[in-house]
Write a structure and sequence with these properties.
Strand order of the largest sheet: 7-4-6-5-9-8
Largest sheet: 6 strands, mixed
Number of helices: 7
CATH architecture of the largest domain: 3-Layer(aba) Sandwich
Shape: elongated
CATH superfamily of the largest domain: MoaB/Mog-like domain
Structural class: alpha/beta
Radius of gyration: 31 Å
Helix content: 10-25%
CATH topology of the largest domain: Molybdenum Cofactor Biosythetic Enzyme, Chain A
């Protein structure tokens, strides 16, 4: 009996866990997932400083048209030592420079007129104007980047700002990818009558690499026990083994038998979804083994909804199941399968929200529809008719 979609995904996610962590240098951290909570070691800013180029003043001295004597200059990087603002005076100051003694406001240049010796104010001034206070951005000891965060340029900037030269991140899973079938030839080879070019290895490798994991292409295993056993044994040396084809009920679908011989504990071998139904999942001493259908569309959709969440969890992500969005149908859709149905759609963002319509022929042999689609409509197994104007769940690609 086929596993339900929700149950299958639950089984997978309950049987995978984050990989070990490794220390990576700052220039190589972008795109990796942090494996430690990063605490701010000090306040940011570290001192009260000027938010603008302008003049450091005492607010009590300031009213429109007042003229103040310029007593000094404080550049960014200056210490301010020996400088102070007294009654009737101002200090010329640059952005980022520390606030001098006696100052409680900054007046931007554009709100003043100056002859180099004095400065005249053109607008009212309040205490605290244009001063960045110590710790106003980040407090010492605050968790600024929690474990499980994918590091973007913004997080790299923060780490560098606190002088971190490296950080612990989760290791990236090595994913062995194996296509199976006597009918397959590698790209670049001329197919004979009845042969087809292996594309699944390449699309699955691209999907793995797009996540930040490491694909290991094993090539093509032929439909005989020796070839399959050799390739599967090689694949089990990786963190994940991902096979394509050979798990349905055909006479020559030997993958399941060879996996069992190799010691894989099979947890399910069919899922109540379309496309992607003949998907199997098992474990060999903790190593996840996925067997996807050979049909390219089924293989890609199976990866998206069943394999991808597992890889994200292994990479340390906190959120591994992509959010579904509500989209209004521009035309009716049908689910005649009594399974969860994945339909390739084109989604368009409008002022009234997300609109979606079929990307074309939904036959699993039609690759061009997958190319046109930018989202997958997820139709529940409990309904068959979905009307124009009705909202449905879509997962954006």
């Amino acid at each position: 009996m086929a596993e339900s979609f929700e149950s299958a995904r639950g089984v997978i996610l309950s049987n995978v866990s984050a990989l070990d962590r490794e220390s990576i240098a700052l220039p190589l951290l972008v795109g990796r997932v942090l494996a430690e909570d990063f605490y701010a070691p000090w306040d940011m800013p570290r001192w009260d400083n000027s938010e603008m180029d302008g003049f450091a003043v005492r607010a009590v001295d300031c009213h429109v048209s007042v003229q103040l004597r310029i007593e000094g200059y404080l550049p960014a990087g200056g210490s301010g030592e020996g400088l102070s603002v007294s009654s009737g005076t101002a200090i010329r100051i640059m952005t980022g420079a520390p606030i001098p003694v006696g100052c409680d406001a900054i007046v931007p240049f554009e709100n003043t007129e100056s002859d180099g010796e004095t400065v005249t104010l053109k607008q009212p001034v309040k205490s605290g104007d244009y001063i960045r206070c110590c710790g106003s951005d980040i407090s010492a000891g605050e968790v600024m980047i929690p474990s499980g965060t994918k590091l973007r340029p913004a997080e790299i900037n923060l780490l560098a700002s606190f002088s971190r030269l490296d950080a612990f991140v989760f290791c990236c899973p090595r994913v062995a990818i194996l296509s199976t079938g006597d009918e397959l030839v590698a790209p670049g080879e001329a197919p004979a009558a009845g042969q087809i070019i292996d594309s699944n290895s390449w699309s699955l490798a691209a999907a793995v690499r797009e996540l930040g994991a490491v694909p290991i292409c094993l090539g093509i295993a032929r439909d005989n026990r020796e070839s399959l056993a050799e390739k599967i044994a090689e694949g089990l040396k990786a963190d994940v083994l991902l096979t394509s084809a050979g798990v349905s009920s055909g006479d020559r679908d030997l993958v399941r038998d060879i996996l069992e011989t190799a010691g894989i504990q099979q947890l399910f071998w069919k899922v109540a979804i379309k496309p992607g139904g003949p998907t199997a999942f098992g474990l060999q001493e903790g190593t996840p083994v996925f067997s996807l259908p050979g049909n390219p569309v089924s293989s890609m959709i199976g990866f998206e909804f069943l394999v991808k969440p597992a890889l994200l969890k292994m990479m340390g992500y906190r959120e591994v199941i992509p959010s579904l969005h509500k989209a209004t149908l521009k035309a009716p859709l049908r689910n005649e399968t009594e399974k969860v149905r994945f339909l390739r759609v084109v989604a368009e963002q409008t002022k009234d929200g997300l609109l979606a319509e079929s990307a074309g022929d939904q036959n699993t042999g039609i690759l061009s529809t997958m190319i046109r689609a930018n989202a997958i409509a997820v139709l529940p197994a409990t309904r068959s008719e979905f009307s124009e104007g009705e909202p449905v769940d879509v997962q954006l690609l």
